[in-house]
Specification:
Largest sheet of chain A: 5 strands, antiparallel
CATH class of chain B: Alpha Beta
GO cellular component, one term (chain A): nucleus
Structural class of chain B: alpha+beta
Largest sheet of chain B: 5 strands, antiparallel
CATH architecture of chain B: 4-Layer Sandwich
Strand content of chain B: 15-25%
CATH topology of chain B: Glutamine Phosphoribosylpyrophosphate, subunit 1, domain 1
Radius of gyration of chain B: 18 Å
Keywords (chain A): Cytoplasm, Nucleus, Proteasome
Pfam family, one (chain A): Proteasome
Largest interface: A-B, 8 and 9 residues
Family (chain A): Belongs to the peptidase T1B family.
Distance between the termini of chain B: 48 Å
Number of strands of chain B: 10
Helix content of chain A: 25-40%
Number of domains of chain B: 1
Strand content of chain A: 25-35%
CATH topology of chain A: Glutamine Phosphoribosylpyrophosphate, subunit 1, domain 1
CATH architecture of chain A: 4-Layer Sandwich
Order of helices and strands of chain A: EEEEEEHHEEEEHHEE
Shape of chain B: globular
Organism (chain A): Arabidopsis lyrata subsp. lyrata
Number of strands of chain A: 12
Oligomer: heterodimer
């Protein structure tokens, strides 16, 4: 079994009309055993920037702490929040620093940039960025997620419709993956507010 | 002077609370050629005298105003070789920032990092402070900015400033002439007039250097021909 599949994870982000949504599953497992059903995979960097990390859970937590640390210092020095594109470049650089002993995570970054334009990207565990205009996925359920998103996505969805779409895509994909699931955690971010919702799916 | 007993080692404070080496560094700056900068509403201009030691020196090979990034330029008063070292270090820091964040470095951040380098040379063993004060001119998302950095590592944002030999006359002149809503071309004219105030000899495009940056965010050193045009307008 690959080390990326040790804990199980599913993360997805989608672009809407002047908004974005980022969602993850909630299972934390040790191979076949489920040990938590409320694991936090998506974290806020600032009000308009979120990062979801899939992969080995310990690296998810450590990498998140390091990124928050770097962003807080940046905020203090530059007296402004980091733009999503800048943050993505930072994450890519931090991952590549560990090129020969990497963090075993795949980040999904989602944010609102200048003029509230939504930005999403994903990268592999050593920092190869992949920008997308529609959706990005990561985790053990990524193959199902690709299929579900491709089928359900349409451009310029409003916040509520985007929420429905990303929730359906997430739940149907994790149902096909034994290592991820136990509900979902969805953030829908518009320029004025962040709506956080918990989904109840098949609890297995 | 009682202070002179404490002027041998940089890391020793004198009883009056001064670091004498820094005072001496400021003296070196004060005897350097005059340079000045003016922040206009839509850009920044920096200028300096370019007095060469002999008419045999090829003046086209000397450039006192340098780029740190495409949108930040710098000029100095004091020791030229020290300036070159600082320019090199600052350019490297700006490029490192760009490589990490894929975003051009904001002017304040570059000034702070350069000032930090200068401060390190006032608190390390076996080194001396830099014998230059810098005037950094840049244009970024926060608009036009002008900063002065001293050998001690302190930095200040200025609307208009001067350094070097003629500093007090130049500053008095700038205080009288500066207006908040000045535009870039007016600022260039004022810069030339300020340099003229204390100039020994005839001012020409061969013995001054002018750099400017406007809303296009591209820092440029003016060619001698352009300086001649401005000089003609000032006459």
């Amino acid at each position: 079994m690959s080390i990326f599949e040790y804990n199980g994870s599913a993360v997805v982000a989608m672009v809407g009309k002047n908004c974005f949504a980022i969602a993850s599953d909630r299972r934390l497992g040790v191979q076949l055993q489920t040990i938590a059903t409320d694991f936090q995979r998506i974290s806020k960097i600032h009000d308009h920037l979120f990062i979801g990390l899939s992969g080995l859970a310990t690296d998810v937590q450590t990498l998140y702490q390091r990124l928050v640390f770097r962003h807080k210092l940046y905020q203090l020095r530059e007296e402004r929040d980091m733009k999503p594109e800048t943050f993505a470049s930072l994450v890519s650089a931090i991952l590549y620093e560990k090129r020969f002993g990497p963090f075993l995570c795949q980040p999904v970054i989602a944010g609102l940039g200048d003029d509230n334009k939504p930005f999403i990207c994903t990268m592999d565990s050593i920092g190869a960025k992949e920008l997308a205009k529609d959706f990005v996925v990561s985790g053990t359920a990524s193959e199902s997620l690709y299929g579900a998103c491709e089928a359900m996505y349409k451009p310029d969805m409003e916040a509520e419709e985007l929420f429905e779409t990303i929730s359906q895509a997430l739940l149907s994909s994790v149902d096909r993956d034994c290592l991820s699931g136990w509900g979902g955690h969805v953030y829908v971010v518009t320029p004025n507010e962040v709506k956080e919702r918990i989904l109840k799916g098949r609890m297995d | 002077m009682g202070d002179s007993q404490y002027s041998f080692s940089l890391t020793t404070f004198s009883p009056s609370g001064k670091l004498v080496q820094i005072e001496h560094a400021l003296t070196a700056v004060g005897s350097g050629q005059t340079s000045l900068g003016i922040k206009a509403s839509n850009g920044v201009v920096i200028a300096t005298e370019k007095k060469l030691p002999s008419i045999l020196v090829d003046e086209t090979s000397v450039q006192k105003i340098q780029h740190l990034t495409p949108n930040i330029g710098v000029v100095y008063s004091g020791m030229g070789p020290d300036f070159r070292v600082l320019v090199r270090k600052s350019r490297k820091q700006a490029e490192q920032y760009l490589r990490l964040y894929k975003e051009p470095i904001p002017v304040t951040q570059l000034v702070r990092e350069t000032a930090t380098v200068m401060q390190e040379f006032t608190q390390s063993g076996g080194v001396r402070p830099f014998g230059v004060s810098l005037l950094v001119a840049g244009y970024d998302d926060k608009g036009p900015q002008l900063y002065q950095v001293d050998p001690s590592g302190s930095y200040f944002s200025w609307k208009a400033s001067a350094m070097g030999k003629n500093v007090s006359n130049a500053k008095t002149f700038l205080e009288k002439r500066y207006t908040e809503d000045m535009e870039l071309d007016d600022a260039i004219h004022t810069a030339i007039l300020t340099l003229k105030e204390g100039f020994e000899g005839e001012i020409s495009s061969k013995n001054i250097e002018i750099g400017k940056i406007g809303a296009d965010k591209v820092f440029r050193v003016l060619t001698p021909a352009e300086i001649d045009d401005y000089l003609a307008e000032v006459e």
